[in-house]
Specification:
Layout: E1 2-7, E2 14-19, E3 22-28, H1 49-59, H2 76-85, E4 94-95, H3 96-102, H4 109-117, E5 130-131, H5 144-154, H6 161-166
Parallel strand pairs: 4-5
Antiparallel strand pairs: 1-2, 2-3
Helix pairs in contact: 3-4
Length: 169
């Protein structure tokens, strides 16, 4: 059974969705490819302690890699792309072509981009770390401004402000 909770973040409200107690969704407001709210299950005031704790640590600049158990529902190709996304180090970027090459098909950058856009667990599965072949910021379901802010934050330009905006001290 699914349920969801909405939490505040420096990037606006985040909707956390769990299926049988395992995180399966993290969605931003106005996110492209955001599933309909009725698919998230009932709203719960019960916290998602591990997810909320790790997100708070990430926004405070203290967490570089999420270790949450996730249930990533998608095709085998999508799950392979999302697995590769989790291997991109904090503060670094890769191109769609780089990911396609690591998947063994250098000509599949467009398919990688489509799978990237369908990532159900933004931020934790860092699809914001994927850029265009020229280094340009392209295609982010949460909006290019959010992508820019997340990348700037990870590169050190946003530390300090993040925790305050998240509600920490």
């Amino acid at each position: 059974m699914k349920h969801h909770r909405i939490i505040d973040s420096p990037y606006g409200p985040l909707t956390l969705v769990a299926e049988d107690g395992v995180l399966c969704g993290l969605y931003m407001t106005d996110q492209r490819h955001r599933p309909p709210e009725e698919t998230f299950g009932p709203r719960s005031d019960a916290p998602f302690p591990e997810a909320e704790e790790q997100l708070e640590a990430y926004f405070a600049g203290g967490l570089k890699e999420f270790t949450l158990p996730l249930r990533l529902n998608g095709t085998p190709f999508q799950r392979a792309v999302w697995d590769r996304l989790r291997q991109i180090p904090y503060g670094e970027t890769r191109t769609y072509g780089d990911l396609a090459t690591t998947l063994g098909n250098p000509n599949s950058s467009r398919a990688v981009g489509l799978a990237n856009g369908r990532n159900p667990v933004g931020i934790i599965v860092p699809c914001h770390r994927v850029i265009g072949s020229t280094g340009s910021l392209t295609g982010y379901g949460g909006g290019l401004e959010r992508k820019r802010r997340l990348l700037d934050f990870e590169r050190g330009a946003g530390s300090g402000r993040q925790l305050e905006a998240f509600g920490g001290s």
